[in-house]
Amino acid sequence: MHITRKIAVGLAFGALLSTTACAAAGADDGVVPVAVGYQSKTINTVTAGTLMKELGLLEKYLDTAAEETGETYDLTWHDFASGPPLTAEMIAGKVHIGSMGDFPLSVNGAKTAEFDDVKTSWVSVTGYNLTGSLNQIVVPNSSDATTLADLEGEVISTSLGSTAHGNLVSALDAAGLSPEDVELLGQDPPVGVTALESDQVDALAQFVPFPQRVVFSGGGRLLHDGNTGVPTFHGVVASDAYTEEHPEVLQAFLAAQREAMEFLHQHPLEAAMMVAEATGLPPEVVYLYNGPNGAVTFDMTVKEELVGAVETGLPFLQELGALEQLDLDDFVNEEPLRELYGAAYDETKASLTNPSAITGHDEVCGIDVADPATASEAWPAGEETTQVAATPTCLLRLVAQGGEYRALYVPDASSGTRIFGEHATWVSDPSAGENATLLPFGTVADADAYATEHAGSQVIDYQTALDSV
To answer: Could you confirm whether the keyword Cytoplasm appears in this record (predicted)?
Structure first.
């Protein structure tokens, strides 16, 4: 039955986007409209949306452009819950530049290509995760499920046609299941969270930040960390006709995005607090994704790995009926970024290193924090700074000294994805090094697998791990 629902959603989406396009690129009475679409609660788009907006950066660069062109720019911000309605507004000529996830971005490129006056190009990236772990699956705390195979025949809430939906299908396939083995329920993320927490569905498959928001609130636990080996990202698309007429607007936007990204790298905690205040999201959850060594790597360049991820996702979107084809060579336009970055662009594009890293000296274990695979962080209650630890074990020693903490951040010992330490499943491994005897895992299955492979190891909960240091 859910196969019919999938196809119906794809057809409905196509019908929605088949409206008559009406461009709004030109200036009216000397005033140039600048309509920016963003997703405030999708927090790995903040450098092209919420954070840029809160810092007033686009206004600053448009003022500079106005001094050179003599034009007056009328900037408006349009907030969307997801990518499809943003694309519909771009086709209607009501939005000129927008940010969205990789699957909606692909559909945007394919659907707008049908209309010359609103055809778009992919011009930058906001943030990415190379393993796909910005999309995750959570279950109620009462669930008996420990692996995806345990969801056979169960109801899973997801946003149909989203990257989270595609990630779920890939994860099911790796677990030996097909979409026909579960019942998919199409729901917007906030609705799905409510359904999960009220036991109306058996699992929630969603994109950042909703899975970890559920985990942080205590409303559920992680079942699958989203690691499918296929990168996921959010990017920026812009109307070709509009930016050809007003290239200074796109350059202002990209300059503003770069400054927002630099601010996030230099002031991660302050940036998280600003985004949280603007969106109503818990700052601890925002910082999990957007902080140093976070689940999101913020980098504007259009990397080959991300273009490859789009290619990988196209068959799923075609099967869904969301698009027929996408000419990636035509869709990707790196020239504005090259103009912004100059000679540094290719080097930045080639790097896959997260430019925001946890550094400092671990006072408890007496060693420097250097390895991103183990670097951890604690956010003390009432403090505007965090404390660093070289390893998760060292972090537990810090917490055991006393004090209250808003959140603990540790890398999953299996995937490296940043998770909440206080909500992790831990393994005690006496044979590990002195500062590595306690290892955190996002899922019970990964903890069990590690304990099985390492004789003498034991799966324990957070409080037991804390009591043991």
So the answer is: no
Gap between the terminal Cα atoms of the chain: 51
CATH of span 135-224: 3.40.190.10
Confidence grade of residue 27 (pLDDT, cut at 50, 70, 90): low
Q: How far is CA 168 from CA 3, 133, 255, 388, 415, in A?
A: 14, 11, 35, 34, 17
- What is the pTM (predicted TM-score) of this model? 0.93
Both tokens of residue 151? Answer: 């969801």
pLDDT in tens, 258-290: 999 999 999 999 999 999 999 999 999 999 999
Nearest to 127 by CA among 300, 1, 284: 300
Backbone angles phi, psi at 168, to 5 degrees: -60, -45
186 dihedral zone (left: phi>0; alpha: psi -120 to 50; beta)? beta
pLDDT digits (tens, 9 = 90+) for 225-237: 999 999 999 999 9
The pairing of beta strand 155-158 with beta strand 438-441: unpaired
List the one residue out of 321, 2, 319, 41 whose CA is nearest residue 156. Answer: 2
* Residues 172-192 pLDDT 10s: 999 999 999 999 999 999 999
Please, where are the H alpha helices in 280-391?
283-290, 304-320, 328-331, 335-341, 345-350
- The domain 2-130+231-350 is placed in CATH, from the list 3.40.50.740, 3.40.120.10, 3.40.190.10, 3.30.365.10, at 3.40.190.10
Task: Using the Cα atoms of residue 118, residue 119, residue 121 and residue 125 in order, give the sign of their dihedral.
Answer: positive
Per DSSP, 415 falls in state T
90, 112 in Cβ contact below 8 A? yes
pLDDT of residue 397: 98
What is the spatial distance between Cα 250 and Cα 30, in angstroms, rounded to a whole number? 18
Structure tokens at 158: 């997801």
For residue 229, which of 173, 170, 186 has the smallest C-alpha distance? 170
* Domain definitions of the chain by residue range: 2-130+231-350, 135-224, 360-468
CA distances from 241 to 48, 97, 281, 333, 414 (A): 20, 11, 36, 13, 46
